[in-house]
Amino acid sequence: MTEETPGFEEKPDVPSGATPEDAEPKADSAAAAEESAPAGDTNQTAALVAQLDQARKALDERTADLQRLQAEFQNYRRRVERDRIAVKEIAVANLLTELLPVLDDIGRAREHGELVGGFKSVAESLETVAAKMGLQQFGKEGEPFDPTIHEALMHSYAPDVTETTCVAILQPGYRIGERTIRPARVAVAEPQPGAQAVKADEAEAGDDKESGGPDEG
């Protein structure tokens, strides 16, 4: 029989140079790794969610910036187009304004029967070109006087008018679209003072005659 030496106990084999802690079972290390793994995954997920939120926020900001720039560009385009049209209208109006005296001469020549031959052809061509550029003539005898489009150069009274009326067109007016470049220069006539009262009395007398006169008591 083998005698056991008192005071000594059997211990697991430990590699040379290893510390006593290295002698603990490997199962403990594996269990600790399994316990720490879920915590690490949770932290990584939280970090990814935070990064995603930041990316979405940055995308929203860039989208808002793009929409703002697009709106500003559209406003700029509309403003440029509006200015371009305004400049064109002003240039056309200035050109046609310079031609108005020539058109007045053509009108007077037509009234006196002097618009004949080659002069007539040139005059009509000029009037056609002016009309294509949007020039419109206005002003007729007998129309009511409108101070926004008429300029009264002569004034008189007439018994046969019921309101201030253009009785003669001294110079026609011209407009381009809704823009008046020269008012029509006219002679106007107003109702004769007292004429309205006389006409009213005559109208009442006519009504009485048609009804057989006033009733007798």
TrEMBL record:
Gene3D superfamilies xref list: 3.90.20.20, Head domain of nucleotide exchange factor GrpE (2.30.22.10)
Location within or outside the cell: Cytoplasm
Biased composition (Basic and acidic residues): 199-217
Coiled-coil regions listed: 49-86
Pfam families attached to this UniProt entry: GrpE
Keyword match Protein transport: no
Positions of region (Disordered): 1-44, 188-217
Domain of life: Bacteria
Residue ranges, compositional bias (Low complexity): 28-39
CDD domains attached to this UniProt entry: GrpE
Alphabetical UniProt keywords: Chaperone, Coiled coil, Cytoplasm, Stress response
Quaternary structure and partners: Homodimer.
HAMAP family linked: GrpE
Its job: Participates actively in the response to hyperosmotic and heat shock by preventing the aggregation of stress-denatured proteins, in association with DnaK and GrpE. It is the nucleotide exchange factor for DnaK and may function as a thermosensor. Unfolded proteins bind initially to DnaJ; upon interaction with the DnaJ-bound protein, DnaK hydrolyzes its bound ATP, resulting in the formation of a stable complex. GrpE releases ADP from DnaK; ATP binding to DnaK triggers the release of the substrate protein, thus completing the reaction cycle.
Similarity field: Belongs to the GrpE family.
Protein's UniProt name: Protein GrpE
Originating organism: Streptomyces galilaeus
Gene transcribed to yield this protein: grpE
